[in-house]
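Course assignment 3, question 2. Fill in each field.
Student: A.L.
Task: Predict the tertiary structure for the chain below.
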Amino acid sequence: MKTLTLLAFIVLSGTALSAQDQSPIPKISQQISSYFSYHPREKVFIMTDKGHYKPGETIWFSAFVTNANNQILPIENRELYVKLYDKKGTPVLQDIFRLNTGSTPGDLFLPEDLPEDTYFLAAYTSAHISPEEISCTPLKIDPTYSNQYVAETSAKDSIFLSGQKNEIRVILHDISGEIQKNTRLRYQLTNGTEIVEKGKLKTDANGRITIPITIPNKTNGEPFICELTDTREEWKHEVFLPTDLDPVIIKFYPEGGNLTTGIPTKIGFTAFNKWGLPVEIEGSILNQEGKPITTVKTFTKGLGLFAVTNDEQQKYKLVLSGKTGQNQSFELPAPNLNGLALSLVKTDSEYLLTNLIFADKQKHAIALTVTQGSNLYWAGDMEIDAVGRIKIPSENLPQGINLLSVFTKEGNLLAERIIYHDKNQKLKIEIVPGKTSLQPDESMNVKVRLTDEDNLPVSGNIVVAVTDKFRKGTDRQEIDEYLLIGSELETPFSLISGALKGKISNSALMDVFLIANRVKGFDWGKIRRFNPDAPDFNAGNNRISGFVTDKNENKINKAKVSLVNNKTMQLHTTTTNAEGFFSFPNLNTINAEDFTAKATDSEGKHELKVVLSKNFEGQISVFITENVKKYTLLNIDQVADENYFRNNGELFPRAPKLIKNNTIAIDNQRKMLSTSTNIMDVIKTIKPYKIMSNQIVFYGSENSLNYQGGALLVLDGQQLGTDISSIQSLSPTEIDHINISTNPMDIQRYTGLNSVGVIEIFLKSAKLNEPIVKNETHTSQYDGIYRIPNVFPTEPVKQKRDTRTTLLWIPEQKVDESGLFEFNITAGKVLSDFEIEVQGLSGNDRIGKGKVSFKVMR
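Answer field:
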């Protein structure tokens, strides 16, 4: 642990503690050290060569693993687990890479038949115990066909009011941007699985259509989506419609952690819809009598601040009056009669200026600490005579997120406040290309120079990517924002990074963001209670656990949780803690599917929502499925520049004809399976059939009068033949989903002798097979459990068809004390703007990035 610095500080209306009073600081210091020695916090930063891929390409990536203080971990021969998940939370690709000196290059080959969608690249180490701590990067995988449509949509009114008419205006292009006139489209408005309305329209001579939409007066809690398709249903585009019925989740964060009676308190808040998208809200704070106390409005989407003074310990609530979340209400935290109000007045390169006010107007002995990650950087003891203004020297505080905490003399937490300390320490990366443009197959030299904030050369570890800007993607993580801010806080920095536009230091908006947040993976309650000898702390991730929330997603303290074994009917009970979490240490998640959980409030009157955690890999899958909707709701198609499309025809093949499966949506299937008693009825609902010779024959698929064949039955990949007796004993409740197809290509995956169809049944208990890469030319080598990373090819496989959109990838480059590094780039056949991107860390713990562009043109 870093050396603890005890510094004098200036106090108004306060005095230093007397010598005989015992300071809690040594114990706090020892406990934080002990806790993080058992639970080391590690952060993974993943940089990929680009954000937009085609099936059949390789995802090239580099990973840095740092400790909680953003220092590269000198770890050797440790596992980095890397998985590519689809939006259902299923890993489609996965490998384990060996970390050396806290970093590793890596690659994942994308199968040629990988469906178009948004996927999630997750990376974590054995030190991670929560999905919120892992690195998770969204990646777009899309073949970008030349004849696919691109829909540019806008609404007449940004919020769709229930019961009122609105319009969606559509301009239809192809991928090159060419207007698609006189084109027939279908549309349907859905609310979850419910179809609200549908119709057909045709674009005019300018490629435009106007879709009239009326949102109904009620919702089932799912988003309203307008789905556009062509008449052959070979193309689909979904438009999310924000409505006044959308469930809104608002979380309140009093500055310092307390709403203290009789003292004006700033309260930061976040506002998201149910699916994780930030929203703009407005409303009023009302007291118990319904009298307005103050008005509330977001500063930027998802973030706001207001101030209140609660003199009578009343229960206040926020009632929304704007178009978003209209009439929804949210209770504020209860006021603390004898609490401490902490407010940050100013922070700069010299001091943190803080006000402390005790509600009881009495003298108190306190201790203050400033921490980052697992380290305590500053601490001091003092007495406050009801009110104190404190100047804390900031010279020795580290760059980035710090936590100021106040304790009683017994070591109990009174208040805490997140601070962003900007020491202007950064790794500056200067990139100097030899030319501003290249012709195909032409090369140039590029020079890179690493310096610190004083322009002095430094050594470092960097990653270099040279990529077509069209494939770069817009949601890419940048190393400085991620390690210094994004990885530190529970509410993502992406919420306001656009609003800040890079102005982080001493920004008023940044200060609101810090008030309305919590430090990730840091909990004084857990640290202070930590006992390495207690069984609860030695339990692994496999115990059955979870959390309880109310209808507004607020976690509930002292909720009563009942867990019933569905096989033995044995009952287990427990109570949630202050954070709404519960645990059954003696019950393992290996058999979690055998249990049913219910929860009520402390009085047993109201039923609450239980979220049951699975093992760590299962938790990641759940985390992805719960957080993926915000990416699918923001589905924005990308139009290629007309010149880019014309110059790079080989990048845009025509879309193959779509063969539509007979299977209905999996979510609808699961609802049927959960209520049906007979698997044969479920299959008939999916695709009607008749029984011939104890076989399933779909209508229209008869192929013989005397020797009629039946549909092939497949259970979890195992062929059962065509006799229905092999599946009639299956209970629908045991089945996850069913695929039915009469497509010859699907049938031939199992046999070439069947022309009727195939029925694939997948059980809930089925173990997922390892993904198979369907490309004989792509091979991967292993050293035991570790994937050996492939080397990025410096030359294209086919010189005459060099359609690479990544020209160069250097996943780990050590730069010596001179700070200088050079490399060469050779242009391919793709004519476009290319970006040289360099990110990395210096030998003296600086973090930085650099970018510069050049053209490839004839």
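Instructor remarks: Confidence is low (pLDDT under 50) at residues 1-20, 535-542, 767-777. DSSP finds twelve helices and 52 strands in the chain.
Grade: pending
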